[in-house]
Design brief:
This protein is mostly helical. It has helices at about 30-65, 80-90, 90-125, 130-140, 145-155, 185-210, 210-220, 225-235, 240-255, 255-260, 275-285, 290-320, and strands spanning about 70, 75-80. It has a two-stranded antiparallel sheet with strand order 1-2. The longest helix is centred in the N-terminal third of the chain and has 37 residues, at about 30-65.
Length: about 325
């Protein structure tokens, strides 16, 4: 008689550790590696073609025009940098450039100051009227610049405008908004009206990203709302303020639409009132496309230098602070 021995499974702890499966690392095939750059190039190709067709080629053609001159006797000939030398010594261009710089030195701080005050007010006021105020403040930016300039031209008019005769109600003389002494102020008012809301929304959006704990800490320290606005909120959004200032400086250097439209109401706005207006009239009023191209590239270079200098100064001030 044989005795049966029960067969039991060994405990898991008694089993020797099973060897870990070796992960098979298959090397990517050469075909798979080379397929990604091709696919990436195909995705980029439409954008590249658009950039070449609508940016590189027109800029290259305009630059070639700026390096040549055209006359009835000699035809088109290569003249090198003669057009650029003429541009930087042109008194009409320099006068217009000085006028735009003076305009920007006054208009930019005023507009950004109003935009900052509006953004701080919107951030402090949380009623339902804040939404309506944001829409109203942003509305002038949605109006085309041509329409806005025409509208203000009618409002400034001494014939049918409502503002010119207001001083006569108190015995004064009518205001001539198109006079030489008030023309830049009138233009600055149009630009400020159109762009303050845009800059205010940029600054208000930056304020929404500031941690609320900073405000609460300032309140606990006993800071007043004005002190919180000036010493907490404004320093916290200085990068956004710098960005808005750079955009405004670039836009001021491209000052064109408002004086072009207001020239219908103010005859003293000459063909060279601003540098952009001067370049435009050289091309389409005097058919000097070569010199107009040189003026455009010279202005683009000046805008780049001014914008870079502004960024450089801000970085230096930020590093020292």
């Amino acid at each position: 008689m044989t005795r049966s021995i029960p067969i039991t499974a060994p405990a898991a702890d008694d089993l020797p550790p099973s060897p870990r499966p070796v992960e098979s690392r298959s090397r990517p095939s050469r075909r798979r590696v080379t397929a990604h750059p091709v696919a990436g190039a195909l995705f980029v190709l439409p954008f590249f073609l658009v950039v070449v067709a609508f940016l590189v080629v027109p800029l290259g053609y305009a630059f070639w025009l700026s390096l040549s001159s055209k006359s009835l006797a000699l035809g088109t000939r290569f003249t090198g940098v003669d057009n650029y030398v003429r541009a930087f010594t042109d008194p009409l261009l320099l006068d217009g450039l000085l006028r735009v710089v003076l305009f920007g030195l006054v208009q930019i701080p005023v507009m950004l100051g109003i935009a900052l005050a509006g953004a701080l007010t919107l951030d402090a006021v949380t009623t339902r009227f804040a939404v309506a105020f944001r829409l109203i403040a942003f509305m002038p930016y949605a109006v085309p610049a041509v329409v806005g300039a025409l509208m203000w031209g009618f409002l400034y008019s001494r014939t049918f405008g409502p503002f010119a005769d207001l001083p006569t109600l108190v015995g004064g003389d009518p205001i001539d908004f198109f006079s030489a002494s008030l023309l830049l102020v009138s233009l600055g008012n149009i630009v400020t009206w159109a762009w303050t809301g845009y800059n205010m929304i940029i600054l208000y959006s930056a304020l929404q990203g500031v941690p609320r704990e900073m405000y609460e800490a300032a309140v606990i320290d006993g800071a007043t709302p004005v002190q919180i606005a000036l010493r907490v909120k404004v320093p916290a959004i200085k990068q956004a303020i710098s960005l808005a200032a750079i955009f405004t400086v670039i836009g001021t250097m491209q000052f064109f639409t408002e004086p072009q439209i207001m020239a219908r109401f103010a005859p003293q706005i000459s063909a060279g009132y601003t540098p952009n207006l001067y370049a435009y009239n050289q091309a389409f009023a005097y058919s000097d496309f070569n010199y107009s191209a040189a003026l455009s590239f010279a202005l683009g270079f000046l805008v780049f230098v001014v914008a870079y200098a502004f960024v450089f100064v801000n970085r230096k001030r930020g590093a020292h602070s």
